Amino acid sequence: MKAVGFKTSLNITDENSFVEFELPIPKPTGYDLLIKIKAVAVNPVDYKIRLNSAKDIILEDPKIIGWDAVGIVEEVGDSVSLFKVGDEVFYAGDITRPGCNAAYQLVDERIAGRKPANFSYEATAAMPLTSLTAWEILFDRMKISLDKDAGKSILIIGGAGGVGSIAIQLAKKIGGLKVVATASRPKTRDWCLKLGADAVIDHTDLIANAQKAGYPNFDYIADFVDLNAYWDVIVELIKPQGHIASITGSNAPIALNKLKTKSVSFSWEFMFTRPMFKTEDMIAQHHILTQISELMQKGVIKSAVNTVMNGLSVGNLKEAHRQLESGKTIGKIVILF
């Protein structure tokens, strides 16, 4: 089968930053589905792993990355019960296993969902990783509930990105929250408003701009950009007994003591935790994607696809990574096979 990967961590402009190669089609066992991939999406985690997982070494076998895919079940393992051959599924996968930048891939059925019937492959491929991340941060980490939290406010830092695009919709339509997103360019502001944000503010002076918009503080703050850069601002803007969550990690210690007097809660969100550690509730990702699929079919949630490229190739993956590394993408970049 055709695959695209890398043997060493290189700048995306380097001729060998990606290489095309052939592999045998893998065989499914246990809970695995063998998927014939129809489309994939590219995420910031892809280029971060490309740049950091093979520094100063040359891998014997190229590493395949990519964690957003839609395809057709070709074969199933002996423990599979949720899907059958011929089913169309979408999933983000497991960061500890080979990714989706290949013609075929194995994925555990417990982290896959059924593709929404009325959506194209490219629109569907844009959804799994960001939907799972946004859902988990809002409803698993922050434990937002429509019954008790409707009308509360949330600040989404990085509203026009892949995760922000889904978080705006889920926070507004499923959580019933007042949603304020950050964006600085006319295109990104319009994108956030189109997705349902109640207000969009410039990130360059968050405190002043939030106040101008009528939000001196927030019940919830979700960081999808840079926790270190925004930490002091976040501490100032969060309400007493509020909740902060982030997906961005930290290259320096976070001063959690600054939250003490407000009794504020803080959570990390890493979408790969469940599959990576085979947690007891690993199947929750199947259930989340099932709900996302239903919401898409009902027209409640829109796909975040914004750019589509045709064909799995070194050139398309290089261009997708180049765009993501620029930090100026809107929504999701999808490659249709």
Provide tags for this entry.
Quinone Oxidoreductase, Chain A, domain 1, alpha/beta, about 325 residues, about 30% helix, 2 domains, six-stranded parallel beta sheet, 11 helices, single chain
End-to-end separation in angstroms reads 13 Å
CATH architecture of the largest domain: Alpha-Beta Complex
Give the overall average pLDDT: 97
Strand content: 15-25%
Shape: globular
Task: Flag low-confidence runs.
Answer: none
Name of the level-1 CATH class of the largest domain: Alpha Beta
Characterize the structure shown.
The chain has 337 residues and is α/β, with parallel strands linked by helices. It has two domains: 2-127 and 277-336, Quinone Oxidoreductase, Chain A, domain 1 (Alpha-Beta Complex); 130-268, NAD(P)-binding Rossmann-like Domain (Rossmann fold), CATH 3.40.50. It is built from eleven helices and 15 strands. The strands form three sheets. Strands 3, 4, 5, 6, 7, 14 and 15 form a seven-stranded mixed sheet that branches. α3 crosses α5 (162-173) and α3 crosses α10 (284-297). It starts with a strand and ends with a strand.
How do the helices and strands line up, and which of them pair or pack?
Elements: E1 2-5, E2 19-22, E3 32-42, H1 44-52, E4 69-76, E5 88-91, E6 104-108, E7 112-114, H2 121-125, H3 128-141, H4 146-149, E8 153-157, H5 162-173, E9 178-182, H6 186-194, E10 199-201, H7 206-212, E11 218-223, H8 227-237, E12 238-246, E13 265-268, H9 273-277, H10 284-297, E14 305-310, H11 314-325, E15 332-336
Parallel strand pairs: 8-9, 8-11, 9-10, 11-12, 12-13, 14-15
Antiparallel strand pairs: 1-2, 3-4, 3-6, 3-15, 4-5, 5-7
Helix pairs in contact: 3-5, 3-10
